[in-house]
Amino acid sequence: MIMKKDIAGTVSINLMSRWWYRLGFMVGMILAGIYPALAQDTPADTAVQQADTTAAPVEEEETTIKSKTSLSGDQYPDGTIMLSGLLRAKIEGSYQKVPDRKVAFFVLNPAGEEVAIGDTITGANGVARIRVTKTTLAKGEDGSYSFIARFDGDDKFEGSESDLMLKSASLVMVATEADSTYTLSLTATADSPDGPLPIAAAPVSVYVKRMFSSLKVAEGETDETGALEVEFPAGLAGDENGNIEITAMIEETDEYGNLTATATQKWGYSVSAAIVESPRALWSPHPPTWMVITFFILMGAVWIHYAIVIVSLLKIKSDGRQAAGKA
Fold it and tell me: To 10 degrees, the CA torsion angle through 9, 10, 12, 13?
């Protein structure tokens, strides 16, 4: 038989073991919480903290933005050169055009000294342009022109510059019309002490001015005499008088830059710039009358159905209240 005394002893032993388990668990949790604080007071961590305090100082952020200047030149048959300096700055990882900044232009004399030409302000496209006459420019020993475009920088952008060397050359364009056929005769020559030298195998592109950009309408390559004839297309839109601005170019050559010739010819049909009211049509802001009437009929039918539904719902609600009152 199991005696009451034995049962009481067994219960007391189980209770004591449970208390010991709980006490041990609590002590372990306390030690686990105290350990990180104790670990921070060790000499090793102190050394780490000292090492961190002696770390290299953080470099100061740059106060100016890096800029980049690009210089190009267009030579015209009237003996002038258009210098174009493009100013860009590296913003958010990419070069963006910088407006409203002064760019100065220089030419080098035979002694290699800079002679100021002038300065202009960059436009919204980041380009500063200045037109110079060849007869007023100094040449180098090899007979070429050496130009420099320089941006001195300011409190926001770093300074930058670009140079360009050009040999004197020209592209001449003559427009003729015969039997309703339009023809452009182009001649490319380079200047030399012995006279003009033909520029052979040069690709020529012909453009017409459009509203947002230039449209290429013809192209070809000069022969051994530097000459080229291209047929100009008919049926192009001009201004209110039918005039078209034509530009022929030999683009981005290493020796001459861009050789450019321009002309204005009455070879297009007239397009009036006057603002007139558009007719009622599907393509205009004024739709046809039948479409307006149809639209209002359909929209009226839709809103009438909405009204019928709302009235029906209100009637059902009213009838329900009356039925509940009678009950």
Answer: 120
Domain-terminating residue out of 165, 195, 211 = 165
CATH number where 136 lies: 2.60.40.10
> Which of 176, 177, 202 is closest to 187 using CA atoms?
202
291-to-20, 109, 283 alpha-carbon distances in Å: 92, 73, 13
Give the up-direction half-sphere exposure of residue 194: CA atoms within 13 A in the CB hemisphere.
2
Contacts with 2 (C-beta within 8 Å, 6 or more apart), sequence order: none
Last residue of a domain, one of 165, 180, 195: 165
Q: How many CA atoms lie within 13 A of 255 on its CB side?
A: 11
Average pLDDT of the residues in 105-128: 93
Look at the chain and report how many structural domains it folds into: 2
User: What is the per-residue pLDDT for 49?
Assistant: 44
Q: Mean of the pLDDT values across residues 70-78? A: 95
Q: With H, G, I as helix, E, B as strand and everything else as coil, classify residue 293.
A: helix
Which two three-digit tokens encode residue 155? Answer: 């409190």
Say if strands 169-178 and 181-190 run parallel, antiparallel, or are unpaired.
antiparallel
Domain that holds residue 123: 67-165
Query: Do residue 141 and residue 228 come from a single domain?
Result: no
With a CB cutoff of 8 Å and minimum separation 6, the contacts of 173 are 77, 184, 185, 186, 246, 248, 261, 262, 263
Query: Per residue in 169-197, pLDDT tens?
Result: 999 999 999 888 999 999 999 998 888 99
Pick from 264, 262, 249: which is nearest to 72 by CA?
249
Strand partners, 177: 182
